[in-house]
């Protein structure tokens, strides 16, 4: 049992930040992303004995996370939050640097993408290798490169629209 816990701890440490970013890309909400992160790793813990080493463990975990996020979005019929509610905004301390604001705006723009585009660009931002992204998303590597190019164009447009406001 200790070996299993140790293996799980290592898996969590190696993958939790990327999975959090993926969940945040889907929800645009810190609390929801943390909940989905926990739910994902609960499923990883419960199914670790089923992992067959046919793919990288990170690919397997991404698939679990994507399915968890999609289930969450469908069952709750939630969309990524565009704006902070006034009550939350008032309680937020003004400690954002310009870089933090740009990152927040980037995630806000990502939240406006289609589900499949959100997962792909989040994985790209987390520097996941293209073959692994292709496997997670279920498209060929060639099609993936074209899709990434188009997603980046779309994100640039969304980002520039916000900059003009």
From TrEMBL:
Domain annotation RNA polymerase sigma-70 region: ranges = 11-78
InterPro entries, alphabetized: RNA_pol_sigma-70-like, RNA_pol_sigma-70_dom, RNA_pol_sigma70_r2, RNA_pol_sigma70_r4_t2, RNA_pol_sigma_r2, RNA_pol_sigma_r3/r4-like, WH-like_DNA-bd_sf
| Protein family per UniProt | Belongs to the sigma-70 factor family. ECF subfamily.
Q: Where is the RNA polymerase sigma factor 70 region 4 type domain?
A: 105-155
Originating species? Mucilaginibacter terrigena
Q: Name one GO biological process term.
A: DNA-templated transcription initiation
Alphabetically list the UniProt keywords. Answer: Sigma factor, Transcription, Transcription regulation
In alphabetical order, the GO MF annotations are: DNA binding; sigma factor activity
Q: Which NCBIfam families match?
A: sigma70-ECF (TIGR02937)
Q: Please state what the protein is called.
A: RNA polymerase sigma factor
């Amino acid at each position: 049992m200790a070996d299993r816990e140790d293996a799980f701890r290592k898996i969590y440490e190696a993958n939790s930040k990327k999975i959090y970013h993926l969940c945040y890309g889907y929800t645009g909400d810190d609390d929801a992303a943390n909940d989905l992160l926990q739910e994902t790793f609960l499923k990883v813990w419960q199914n670790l004995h089923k992992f067959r080493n046919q793919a990288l463990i990170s690919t397997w975990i991404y698939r679990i996370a994507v399915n968890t996020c999609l289930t969450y979005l469908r069952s709750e019929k939630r969309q990524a939050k565009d704006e902070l509610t006034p009550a939350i905004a008032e309680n937020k301390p003004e400690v954002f640097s310009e870089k933090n604001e740009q990152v927040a705006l980037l995630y806000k723009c990502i939240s406006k993408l289609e589900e499949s585009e959100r997962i792909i660009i989040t994985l790209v931002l987390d520097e996941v290798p293209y073959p692994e992204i292709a496997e997670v998303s279920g498209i060929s590597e060639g099609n993936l490169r074209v899709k990434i190019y188009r997603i980046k164009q779309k994100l640039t447009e969304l980002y520039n629209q916000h900059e003009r406001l």
